Amino acid sequence: MKKILTLLLVPFLLSVPVSGSEKGFEAALFHPVQIHDENTSITGVRLNVFYAINQDVKGVDLGFIGLGRTRGDQVGISWNFIGSIVEGDMVGWQTGLYTDVYGDFTGLKGGFINIQRGDMVGWQSGVVNFAHSEFKGLQTGFYNSAADMRGLQFGVVNYAENLHGLQIGLANINASGDPLYFFPFVNFSF
Questions:
Q1: Is pLDDT above 70 for 47?
Q2: N or C: which end of the chain has fewer CB within 10 A?
Q3: Can you give the residue range of the structural domain that contains 183?
């Protein structure tokens, strides 16, 4: 009986304020049907079934079917089946069918479609990968695209506006044309 009572009380104990507008636990069916409003930051665990929105998230973010949206920054693990959207910066591991970070990202990003709007340092892996700013690291997928690629692109089609590294794939495009604009199998620029 004590174990059952403890398990029932854990979510309520985790929702005690950590500091100010931070809470330790969030559970959402779909926004706005969630424990805390979207202006609340979560330091601990955020769970959602269909859709959750919070300000900042630090810790573990799990979406069973849904989409997790963070209006500010996120640090930690974000595993949401449909996807994960971070409007600020993120450090950690982000995965889902669709991933999107508006700010800078450091870590591992994996999904079906990955979009990185700010600078990224790390590994982006999926079927389709877009990095709209500076990318330092590894991109692996069917189609890889980076504005300023500094590292390795490994895929069927690789595209870089500026390449400072290596492309391995069937079609490799370096839009700056230095030294080659297009080359099959391997292209490089250093």
A1: yes
A2: N
A3: 104-190
Query: 165: closest CA among 175, 176, 155, 150?
Result: 150
Q: What is the dihedral of CA 148, 69, 26, 24, to 10 degrees?
A: 30
Tell me if residue 138 falls in helix, strand or coil: strand
Same domain, 38 and 63: yes
Tell whether 147 and 87 lie within a shared domain. Answer: no
| Shared-domain flag, residues 22 and 90 | yes
Torsion angle defined by CA atoms of residues 105, 111, 117 and 121, in that order, rounded to the nearest 10 degrees: 30
Which of 96, 122, 154 is where one domain is finished?
A: 96
Cβ contact 87:70 at 8 Å: yes
* H-state helical runs in 56-183: none
Q: What does the pLDDT look like over 66-117, one tens digit per residue?
A: 999 999 999 999 999 999 999 999 999 999 999 999 999 999 999 999 999 9
Burial string for 113-128 (b: 16+ CB within 10 Å, else e) reads bbbbbbbbebbbbbeb
Strand positions, DSSP E, the chain: 22-30, 33-34, 41-48, 51-54, 57-63, 67-70, 74-80, 83-86, 90-101, 105-116, 120-163, 165-174, 182-189
Measured in whole angstroms, the distance separating CA 112 from the mean position of its chain's CA atoms is 12
d(CA 126, CA 139) in angstroms, rounded, equals 8
The reply to whether 92 and 134 lie within a common domain is no
